[in-house]
C-alpha cells in the first residue's frame, strides 16, 4: 500500500498466488506485456489474479454472546478436515517435493526456496527486527521502471505514447512505416498468404491498432510485414527496412532472451521458413558459394529457421501440447496456440528434412495423440468455413506421417538404400504404401475446400506418391549403371555426351517394378497438371517456397523418365507440351527477376525436353513374343 494514496502498488499473479510465492514485478519485458520474475524465469504467461477484497461478510459474523459458546463436534471435525487439507496443499506446494530430473529442475527448486525464504518473517529469537513496512520493488527502483508505477500497470492507466522508450517493432511501426502502411501490409498478408499456412492469430490479422500489436506480438508482427512486402516491387524499400529490424529480432531469439520466450516466436520462425526473404546477395562475388543450386539460399535459411523453431519449442515446453491435457494457469487461447504451433513444428521438421535429404532435427518432434479436426477450434471459425482449415490440417498430418515412414524405410541411409537396391526386396514396402495412400484418398479426395488449399494439398499428396514410387525407378537406373559399367572404367573419363540406353527395351510392364514406375510418372505429371490448371496466378505467385520445389522435382523426374524410356513415344509430345505450359505459368506468376518462379522458369533443363526423343537409342515398340 502507498502511504499517501492507500493504493496497491502491485497485485500478485495467478501462478505466484497458487504456489504461494513472492510476486515481484520485472522490468525485463522489453516493451512486451508486464511479467513477474517467477513467470519470466519459468517461461509462463503472467496473468494478474483477481482481487479477494470486498463483499458482504455480515452473514458469517455471530452475535457477541455466541462467540464464547462451545463449538459442536461436527464443526470441530469439519475444521480439522479443512486444516488437514490445507496442510496437504502446503506440502504439495513445497518446492522440496518438486521433481528433480535434471540440473534445470535443481535451479528451479533453488529459486523457489529462495523466494519462500524471503517471504517468511524473521523468528522472534533472531537478532534482527521484523520491519512491518517492507520496501516494495517499485519504491526501490525509485519510479524508474517503465512497466509499472505507483498507480499500477502503465498500460491500464496511461496511453502507450507516454512511455519513455519504444521497442524495435514500435519504432518500425510508428517511426519508419506508419500505421496506415502497416495495416495495408497486414491486410495484404491476410488476403494472399495466410490461407496457405493459417498459423497467425486472427486477432493479429484483424487488428486496428498496430502499435498495440507491436507491443503484444513484436516478432510475429515483424515477420508478417517482411513476408507481405517481399513479392511486391512497390514495397521493395519497405521490405529492406523490415528485414533489417527482423534480423535484430532473430539475434534475440538465437540468444533466447526473456522477451522471446513466447509462442509467437515459434509461429514467426515457421512462417518465415515458408516464405524466406530474398537475400540481397551478390552471387557474382561468390561464384563457388552455391554451385548449381539456385535454391540453396532459401533451403539453408529454411533449414536453420525450422531448427531454431524446434529448439525454441522445447524451451517453451510446447511438446507437452502433443497430449490432451489441460495446462494449469493457461488461457484457452494460449493452449490452442501452443497446440497448433507444435503441430506445425512437427510438419515443418519432417518436410524440410525430406526435401533436403537430411536427417531429422530430433526424434522428439512427434504427435503422441491422434489429433482430428475437432481438436483445432481456432481453425473452425464460421468466417473460415470456406477453407476448412481443420480438416486440411488433419489430412496434412496423415500425409506427413506417410512421408516420414517412407523416408525412414526407404531412404534411412545410403548403405541401407544400396542394400535394398541390390536385393530388390523393397516391393513389399511400396505395396503397403499404396494401400495406405489408397485409404487416404478414399477419406480426403472428396474434401471441398478453397482453391488455394485444394491446389497445395493435392500437390503435396502427389509429391508423397512420387517420392515413394520413384525409388523403384532409381533402383532400376542404379542397377543398370552398375552392370553396364566395364571393370576398371573411370566415371570421369567421358569425352562427350553419351546416348542413354532405355531401361525398358521390352516395355515397362515387362519389369517387376513396372507398376511402381508408371505410378511415379503419373504422380509427376499430376503435379504439373495441377499447377497448369490453376486459374488464379495469385495462387502460384504467393504459395510457400516448398511447393515450387515439389513442382521442379516432378519436372526433373519426368525428364529422366523420358530419357530412359519410362515415357512411351505416344506420350512424349504430351509431356513436352505440359512442361512448356508449366514454364509459361511460372513466367506469368513471377512479378520480378528475383522471384523464385522467375528463377526456376529460366532453367535449361526444361528446354531440353524437345531433345529427349533424339537421345533415347532404343526403339520404344511393344515387345515381340
UniProtKB/TrEMBL annotation:
Q: Per UniProt, what is one GO molecular function of this protein?
A: zinc ion binding
Is DNA-binding found in the keyword set? yes
Q: Name one Pfam family in it.
A: Zn_clus
Q: Which UniProt keywords apply?
A: DNA-binding, Metal-binding, Nucleus, Transcription, Transcription regulation
* GO BP: DNA-templated transcription
Where is region (Disordered) located? 57-87
Q: Which residues form the Zn(2)-C6 fungal-type domain?
A: 12-46
Q: Name one GO cellular component term.
A: nucleus
Q: Which InterPro entries match?
A: AAA_Catabolism_Regulators (IPR052780), XnlR_reg_dom (IPR007219), Zn2-C6_fun-type_DNA-bd_sf (IPR036864), Zn2Cys6_DnaBD (IPR001138)
Protein name as it appears in the record? Zn(2)-C6 fungal-type DNA-binding domain
Amino acid at each position: 500500500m502507498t502511504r499517501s494514496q492507500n493504493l496497491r502498488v502491485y497485485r500478485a499473479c495467478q501462478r505466484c498466488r497458487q504456489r504461494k510465492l513472492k510476486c515481484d514485478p520485472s522490468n525485463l519485458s522489453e516493451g512486451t506485456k508486464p511479467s513477474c520474475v517467477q513467470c519470466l524465469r519459468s517461461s509462463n504467461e503472467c496473468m494478474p489474479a483477481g482481487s479477494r477484497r470486498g463483499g458482504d461478510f455480515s452473514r458469517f459474523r455471530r452475535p457477541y454472546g455466541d462467540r464464547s459458546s462451545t463449538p459442536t463436534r461436527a464443526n470441530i471435525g469439519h475444521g480439522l478436515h479443512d486444516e488437514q487439507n490445507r496442510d496437504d496443499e502446503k506440502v504439495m506446494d513445497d518446492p522440496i517435493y518438486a521433481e528433480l530430473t535434471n540440473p534445470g529442475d535443481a535451479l528451479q527448486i533453488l529459486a523457489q526456496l529462495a523466494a519462500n525464504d524471503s517471504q517468511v518473517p524473521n523468528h522472534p529469537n533472531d537478532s534482527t527486527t521484523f520491519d512491518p513496512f517492507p520496501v516494495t520493488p517499485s519504491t526501490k527502483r525509485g519510479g524508474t521502471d517503465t512497466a509499472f508505477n505507483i498507480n499500477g500497470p502503465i498500460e491500464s492507466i496511461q496511453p502507450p505514447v507516454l512511455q519513455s522508450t519504444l521497442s524495435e517493432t514500435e519504432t518500425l511501426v510508428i517511426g519508419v512505416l506508419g500505421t496506415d502502411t502497416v495495416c495495408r501490409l497486414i491486410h495484404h498478408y491476410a488476403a494472399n498468404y495466410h490461407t496457405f499456412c493459417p498459423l497467425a492469430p486472427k486477432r493479429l490479422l484483424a487488428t486496428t491498432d498496430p502499435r498495440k500489436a507491436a507491443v503484444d506480438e513484436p516478432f510475429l508482427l515483424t515477420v508478417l510485414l517482411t513476408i507481405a512486402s517481399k513479392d511486391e516491387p512497390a514495397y521493395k524499400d519497405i521490405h529492406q527496412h523490415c528485414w533489417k529490424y527482423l534480423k535484430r529480432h532473430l539475434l534475440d531469439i538465437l540468444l533466447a532472451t526473456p522477451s522471446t520466450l513466447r509462442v509467437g516466436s515459434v509461429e514467426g520462425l515457421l512462417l518465415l521458413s515458408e516464405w524466406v526473404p530474398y537475400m540481397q546477395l551478390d552471387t557474382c562475388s561468390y561464384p563457388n558459394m552455391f554451385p548449381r543450386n539456385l535454391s540453396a539460399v532459401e533451403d539453408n535459411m529454411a533449414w536453420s529457421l525450422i531448427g531454431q523453431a524446434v529448439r525454441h519449442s522445447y524451451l517453451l515446453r510446447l511438446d507437452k501440447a502433443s497430449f490432451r491435457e489441460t495446462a494449469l494457469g493457461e488461457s484457452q487461447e494460449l493452449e490452442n496456440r501452443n497446440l497448433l504451433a507444435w503441430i506445425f513444428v512437427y510438419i515443418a521438421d519432417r518436410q524440410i528434412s525430406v526435401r533436403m535429404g537430411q536427417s531429422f532435427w530430433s526424434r522428439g518432434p512427434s504427435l503422441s495423440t491422434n489429433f482430428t479436426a475437432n481438436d483445432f477450434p481456432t481453425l473452425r471459425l464460421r468466417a473460415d468455413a470456406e477453407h476448412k482449415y481443420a480438416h486440411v490440417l488433419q489430412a496434412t498430418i496423415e500425409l506427413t506421417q506417410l512421408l516420414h515412414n517412407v523416408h525412414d524405410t526407404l531412404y534411412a541411409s545410403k548403405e541401407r538404400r544400396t542394400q535394398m537396391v541390390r536385393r530388390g526386396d523393397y516391393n513389399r514396402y511400396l505395396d503397403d504404401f499404396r494401400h495406405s495412400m489408397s485409404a487416404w484418398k478414399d477419406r480426403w479426395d472428396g474434401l471441398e475446400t478453397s482453391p488455394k488449399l485444394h491446389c497445395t494439398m493435392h500437390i503435396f499428396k502427389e509429391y508423397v506418391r512420387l517420392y515413394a514410387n520413384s525409388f523403384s525407378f532409381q533402383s532400376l537406373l542404379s542397377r543398370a549403371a552398375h552392370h553396364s559399367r566395364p571393370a576398371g572404367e573411370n566415371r570421369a573419363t567421358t569425352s562427350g555426351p553419351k546416348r542413354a540406353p532405355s531401361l525398358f527395351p521390352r516395355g515397362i510392364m515387362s519389369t517387376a517394378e513396372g507398376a511402381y514406375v508408371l505410378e511415379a510418372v503419373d504422380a509427376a505429371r499430376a503435379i504439373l497438371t495441377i499447377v497448369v490448371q490453376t486459374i488464379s496466378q495469385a495462387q502460384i505467385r504467393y504459395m510457400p517456397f516448398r511447393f515450387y520445389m515439389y513442382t521442379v522435382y516432378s519436372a526433373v523426374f519426368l525428364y529422366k523418365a523420358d530419357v530412359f524410356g519410362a515415357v512411351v513415344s505416344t506420350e512424349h509430345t504430351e509431356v513436352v507440351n505440359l512442361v512448356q505450359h508449366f514454364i509459361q505459368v511460372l513466367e506469368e506468376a513471377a512479378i520480378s527477376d528475383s522471384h523464385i518462379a522467375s528463377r526456376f522458369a529460366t532453367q535449361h533443363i526444361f528446354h531440353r525436353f524437345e531433345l529427349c526423343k533424339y537421345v533415347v537409342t532404343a526403339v520404344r515398340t511393344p515387345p515381340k513374343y
